[in-house]
Amino acid sequence: MQGIAPALQQQRQATVGIIANPVSARDIRRVVANANSLQLADRVNILLRLLAALGSCGIGRVLLMPDREGLRLMLRRHLDRLHAAADEATVLPQVAWLDMPVTGGVDDSFRAARMLREAGVAAIVVLGGDGTHRAVVRECGDLPIAGLSTGTNNAYPEMREATVCGLAVGLFAAGCIPDALALQQNKRLEVGVNAGRDDARHDIALVDVAISSEHFIGARALWKADTLAAVYLAYAEPEAIGISSIGGLLEPVGRREPGGLAIALAIEGPTLLRAPIAPGLVRPVGVSGWHRMVDGAPCRVQQGSGVIALDGEREIAFGAGDEITVTLRERAFRSIDIAACMRHAARAGLMRGPPPAPETESASPTPRSFQRRQA
Questions:
Q1: CA atoms within 13 A on the CB side of 126
Q2: Percentage helix, strand, coil for the chain under 3-state DSSP, each rounded to 5
Q3: Whole-angstrom distance, CA of residue 181 vs CA of residue 172
Q4: Alpha helices in 185-329, H assignment, sequence order
Q5: Is 170 exposed, middle or buried (0-12, 13-18, 19+ CB in 10 A)?
Q6: Distance of alpha carbon 247 from its chain centroid, rounded?
Q7: How far apart are CA 342 and CA 71, in angstroms?
Q8: CA distances (Å), 63 to each of 14, 15, 59, 103, 159, in order?
Q9: What is the C-alpha separation between 261 and 206, in angstroms, rounded?
């Protein structure tokens, strides 16, 4: 079997985007649940491992979302040190930062995802929790994502070593693994507020939409189970942490399985469930009933007023005059199947042979990312 090097040497212009939330895992749940906070140095180390893996697959350029927490400065210092060491065994891609204003909030992820989509990157790697991934999916269109879990509640991003994630993304971006093998379709939930009216609003959730009886958004993180009136789930896995664990322990629904789950909650409900709604927080939840959700069929929210939480974070307050629907959408966005990519890499011998040569000024074929945009 031929090694991967010849193909990669011709694809070093492929570009991968990275959106790393520098403040994920710092919400109130980290205080009330005694959970650890991921420090800035830990995030930089994850990025360094990711960049090394991407470079080993011949990715020539990486575009990152800037921040104002110090991640950019710390990463630059580490990269300068690595370049000065002149380690020929480590081939790093060129690192560039998106030219965009930084607010320190979720708008940064929205804007970065749009800019990366317009730049024609092959894929976006996301470092964050459910909320960060939701923000990226809302704006990335058909661009595939790969998630690295660095948040508090992480029902969507799987726990993966950054090196392996980088290898899978790099092989895909370099054109070594076809879409049919590398990509998988994902479900999501669409929330409609006052559809057809002048004050209409729409948003999405990747895992769960929770209806709370609270009337103020306040601290965004949702962690009080006794305020919940209803929960809508794209999927519900029994080993999950967070709001989706309620459905996972009630009637599991796989993330690749058709349909979702709608659950009505009440403190005095006939079914009492103990669920891990946050790290270290196992709380009783009263369940009054549940039913399966069907792709494309809207569910009308019965609660008269309250707050809508998307993937565990309060986002929308509503009153008695508002009409709220939650709709499950299957095949809603694409992600890179890390395990499938690495299995294909092993079967096809993609990691055999010498590493790719350093980038030269010679012409190279049109990168996969731009072929994708022109198709």
A1: 33
A2: 30, 30, 40
A3: 9
A4: 244-250
A5: buried
A6: 21
A7: 29
A8: 11, 7, 11, 18, 23
A9: 13
Two tokens, residue 91: 């081939």
Give CA–CA dist 252/59, Å, rounded: 39
Let me know: does 153 contact 343? Beta carbons within 8 Å.
no
Angle at 282 between CA 279 and CA 283, to 5 degrees: 130
Q: Is residue 106 within 8 Å of 3, Cβ to Cβ?
A: no
Cβ atoms of 246 and 276 within 8 Å: the answer is no
Whose structure tokens read 């929770």? 210
239 in Cβ contact with 248 (< 8 Å): yes
Q: Could you give the CA distance from residue 243 to residue 234 in angstroms, rounded to a whole number? A: 12
Q: Which of 181, 138, 146, 142 is nearest to 163 (CA)?
A: 146
Q: Tell me if residue 2 falls in helix, strand or coil.
A: coil
Q: By the 8 A CB rule, do 134 and 187 touch?
A: no
Contact 91, 51 (CB under 8 A): no
Contact between residue 172 and residue 348 where contact means Cβ atoms under 8 Å apart: no
Whether 187 contacts 328, CB under 8 Å: yes
Spatial separation of the C-alpha atoms in residues 168 and 178, rounded to whole Å? 12
- Residue 260's identity, in one-letter code, is G
CA–CA separation, 229 vs 206, rounded Å?
19
Instruction: Give 10-residue mean pLDDT values along the chain (375 residues).
Output: 42 83 58 62 95 94 94 94 75 95 93 97 95 95 95 79 97 96 98 96 96 74 82 96 94 97 93 90 94 98 94 90 97 98 95 57 43 40
3-state secondary structure of 133: helix
91-112 in b/e form (b: 16+ CB < 10 A) is bbbebeebeeebeeebebbbbb
For residue 31, what pLDDT is reported?
47
Q: Which domains are delineated in the chain? A: 5-176+350-374 (3.40.1280), 188-330 (2.60.200.30)
